[in-house]
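Subject: Sanity check before I submit

Could someone independently write out the structure tokens for this chain? I want to compare against mine line by line before I put it in a report. The sequence has 261 residues.
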Amino acid sequence: MSEAVTYHRDGNVAIVTLNRPEARNAINGDVASALEDAIDRLESDDGVWVGILLANTAGQERPVFCAGADLKAINSGDAARLNTERGGFGGIVYRERRKPIIVGVDGLATAGGCEIVLSADLVVASDRSAFGLAEVKRNLIAGAGGLFRLPRAIGRSAAMEVILTGDPLPASRAYELGLVNRVVAPDQVETTARELASRIAASAPLAVWASRRIVLASAYEDDATLINMTNQEFGKILGSEDTKEGLTAFIEKRPPKWQGR
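---
Independent answer below. Compare away.
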């Protein structure tokens, strides 16, 4: 894996970190490829049940989680490598996956950086963070999901203002509108993301993954389809070893020991 993205596992949690602080963690071909590899690794490891995405902001005068596309890469003719076939921009924004990802943001997440945040499942942000889609200020449009994911996350009116003005949304307002789950001090972002990941990992992974799938589908499927999906997932879960373990642990008044099968 490229040094531009780091990966390590802590118990049932995988920690993925954007590691180009000198370039404001902008996405170039190396980052996109490495980030897709990290998601592949997270998804394929049966012992990993939830992921955390962070960014290294060391040495930055004003912290930037991710500035979006690396304009130098685009100018040099390397634009195509900023997208991967399965993941889209950054190797992540359209990547299909089973496992939830918590993104921990400290600083500005703008343009493609904001779209990476929108592709995650939960968001922990520092109180100095902000989220923006500034493309209109450069006669561009947000091309990696922001134009439809932001309205889903914060509502049409608020999203329209953010998108048409190009002005960033402060973390406190993003929290009020439902984009952010937790707002904390800058030095508490990773700790809080880890605590949230631990709480998720304490639940049965198969049930977490199935529930996530249906919640995401609720944005575009009708009720009849969602009922059918729920029934199918319920049947699969009911026949798993972990359901038997969960019920037995409840009867025996002890913590369950999940196996993910």
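---
OP: Matches mine. For the report I'm noting this point. The chain has a mean pLDDT of 95.
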